[in-house]
């Protein structure tokens, strides 16, 4: 019996050693699992922080882009208004230019008519000057012949 008790005691001792080893392994595995869980929590927290930072950066980029877009839209609207004003000015200037061109054409036609009239009047004046000169020459010739005729008559009558 002693041997059976000794065998049982040795068996119990082995079982106790195995149990201790199993408990130690379990404790080690538990610590390791807890460390792994902590690492995963830290990584998850870091990932969460990075995600929040990325969201904040993205929100800032989106806001900046929105502000830039609003500024660009404002500039575009301002430029459209300016283009509208410039187009109106160009249209007014074109209308004024057309009026000036029509006035210039009218003035040119009147000037051409006046030049033509002046040329006609000059030709008429030249013709009248020639007629006057011929008439004066005829009158002068008649006066001379009349004077000579009187002189001859006076000479005959003397």
- Overall body shape: rod-shaped
Query: What structural class do helix, strand and pairing data support?
Result: mainly alpha
List low-confidence stretches: none
H-E order: H
| Residues in helix, % | over 70%
What summary fits the major beta sheet?
none
Q: Distance N terminus to C terminus?
A: 223 Å
Tally of distinct domains? 1
Q: Work out the radius of gyration.
A: 65 Å
Mean pLDDT: 91
Strand content: under 5%
Note the total helix count. 1
Can you count the beta strands? 0
Describe the 3D structure.
By secondary structure, the protein is mainly α. The protein has one domain. Helices cover 99% and strands 0% of the residues. The radius of gyration is 65 Å and the shape is rod-shaped. The model has no long low-confidence stretch (mean pLDDT 91).
């Amino acid at each position: 019996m002693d041997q059976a008790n000794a065998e049982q005691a040795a068996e119990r001792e082995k079982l106790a050693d195995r149990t201790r080893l199993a408990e130690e392994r379990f404790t080690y595995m538990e610590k390791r699992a807890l460390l792994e869980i902590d690492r995963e929590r830290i990584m998850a927290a870091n990932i969460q922080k990075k995600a929040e930072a990325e969201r904040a950066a993205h929100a800032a980029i989106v806001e900046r882009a929105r502000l830039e877009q609003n500024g660009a839209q404002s500039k575009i609207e301002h430029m459209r208004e300016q283009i509208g004003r410039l187009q109106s000015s160009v249209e007014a200037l074109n209308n004024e230019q057309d009026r000036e061109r029509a006035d210039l054409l009218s003035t040119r036609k009147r000037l051409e008519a006046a030049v033509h009239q002046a040329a006609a009047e000059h030709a008429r004046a030249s013709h009248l000057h020639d007629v006057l000169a011929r008439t004066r020459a005829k009158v002068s010739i008649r006066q001379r012949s009349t004077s000579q005729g009187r002189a001859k008559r006076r000479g005959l009558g003397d």
